[in-house]
């Protein structure tokens, strides 16, 4: 019996599918494949499926976590791309968290909350 796993992907909801695809590409995700209802997005080895599906309560309670090497570089990129203004979304400031991560929050155009983070030494 082989129970080895290969990957797990979330299906992220999109209120406006085309706008969401543009948003994710603008923040740094590649989109190697898309059809009328689903898009495969990835950044390095991290990927998810964006779906043409939206229930407001679901989207506003949906969270994604992206672990990166340098959260300050990601934040600078998102700000430099003027993501907040272009897509009408909220971007938090990077902060050191008590759970040994430095992160910032980013809300996508559908209300999905992203935490983009890097590991930092735990404070004792």
List keywords for this structure.
124 residues, alpha/beta, 2,3-Dihydroxybiphenyl 1,2-Dioxygenase, domain 1, four-stranded mixed sheet, 8 strands, globular
Q: Can you give a write-up of this model?
A:
The chain contains 4 helices and 8 strands, in the order βαβββαβααβββ. With 124 residues, it is of the alpha/beta class. The strands form 2 sheets. A 4-stranded mixed sheet has the order 1-4-3-2, with helices on one face. It has a 4-stranded mixed sheet with strand order 5-8-7-6, covered by helices on one side. It has a single domain (11-119), classed as 2,3-Dihydroxybiphenyl 1,2-Dioxygenase, domain 1 (Roll). It is globular and about 45 Å long. The model has no long low-confidence stretch (mean pLDDT 96). The chain has helices at 17-27, 56-60, 71-80, 83-87; strands at residues 11-13, 30-34, 38-43, 46-51, 63-67, 95-97, 101-107, 113-119. The longest helix is centred in the first third of the chain and has 11 residues, at 17-27. A hairpin with a 3-residue loop joins strand 6 and strand 7 (101-107).
Element layout with pairings:
Elements (H helix, E strand, L loop, with lengths): L10 E3 L3 H11 L2 E5 L3 E6 L2 E6 L4 H5 L2 E5 L3 H10 L2 H5 L7 E3 L3 E7 L5 E7 L5
Parallel strand pairs: 1-4, 5-8
Antiparallel strand pairs: 2-3, 3-4, 6-7, 7-8
Distance between the termini: 43 Å
Uncertain regions spanning at least 5 consecutive residues: none
Instruction: Give the SSE order as H and E letters.
Output: EHEEEHEHHEEE
Q: What CATH architecture would you give?
A: Roll
